[in-house]
Amino acid sequence: MRSSAGFFLCSLLLLATHCTQAADPEVQPDPKTPCANWMGGAPGHPGHNGAPGRDGKDGRDGLKGEKGEEGPQGPKGDQGEIGIAGREGPRGFPGQPGQKGEKGEGSFVHRSAFSVGLTERAPPSNVPIRFSKIFYNEQNHYDASTGKFVCSISGTYYFAYHLTVYLSDVKVSLYKKDKAVIFTYDQFQKNNVDQASGSVLLHLNSGDEVWLQVYGDGENNGVYADNINDSTFMGFLLYPDLDVH
């Protein structure tokens, strides 16, 4: 009994000595040790989050990855605006001739022409010579009953005459609107057949008249025609005035 009590007392003394040394104010006891007032304290509240740290340096680029599989085709986009025209390219080689087209409708052409001949010998003087042999008078602008050409289309005309001369001299003139424009004289040579001719360009207005006429006395009307000799008178429109197009 005494030995047990002595052991217990000795233990208490050792423990007290240990706890006294551990009570040093500079050294905080571990709350989990038996000397921390014999019991651990309650857990504390979590502290506040600290301030974020600075960004680290960028890392190096990694190796290029392998090419992925082609994706499905997307929908067609809207048509863009027309761009500026580019420079003209070089001229190409000529192509092959195409097929002949169909004949088109011709535009209206102004026509006026006549060609006539003499049928009687020695026409009277100082009146229009009536050329009654008609070679061409499709537009009927020449009047065989009067021997006059009557202008229907204003424009520039060409007139000419070729006369056979026989039996007497010939003096003829071409008249326009009762005024002689040109004169032709041929002196007859006996035992021969001669020719007298003349031509002129005239501008005519619609309604103007043109004709041939023997002038002077009856001794100068040697204009002649038979079955083998002709005396002719002709004229035609070269081009009409612009205001009749």
Provide the fold topology:
Layout: H1 2-22, E1 113-117, E2 133-136, E3 142-143, E4 148-150, E5 155-176, E6 179-186, E7 194-204, E8 209-214, E9 221-224, E10 232-240
Antiparallel strand pairs: 1-2, 1-10, 3-4, 4-8, 5-6, 5-7, 5-8, 5-9, 5-10
How would you portray this structure in words?
The protein is mainly β and 245 residues long. The protein has a domain at 113-240: Jelly Rolls, CATH 2.60.120. Helices cover 9% and strands 30% of the residues. It has one helix spanning 2-22, and strands spanning 113-117, 133-136, 142-143, 148-150, 155-176, 179-186, 194-204, 209-214, 221-224, 232-240. Strands 1, 2, 3, 4, 5, 6, 7, 8, 9 and 10 form a ten-stranded antiparallel β-sheet that branches. Strand 3 and strand 4 form a beta hairpin. The radius of gyration is 68 Å and the shape is rod-shaped. It starts with a helix and ends in a 5-residue tail after the last strand. Residues 18-23 have low confidence and may be disordered. Residues 107-244 form the C1q domain. It holds the Pfam family C1q. Residues 24-106 are annotated as: Disordered. Residues 1-22 form the signal peptide.
Series of H and E elements: HEEEEEEEEEE
Q: Globular, elongated, flat, extended or rod-shaped: what is the shape?
A: rod-shaped
Mind summarizing the main beta sheet? 10 strands, antiparallel
Question: Might you state the CATH topology name of the domain at 113-240?
Answer: Jelly Rolls
CATH architecture of the domain at 113-240: Sandwich
End-to-end CA span? 163 Å
What would you call the structural class?
mainly beta
What is the mean pLDDT? 82
Rg, rounded, reads 68 Å
Number of strands: 10
Helix amount: under 10%
Give the C-level CATH assignment of the domain at 113-240.
Mainly Beta
| Number of H- or I-type helical stretches | 1
Low-confidence stretches: 18-23
Strand content: 25-35%
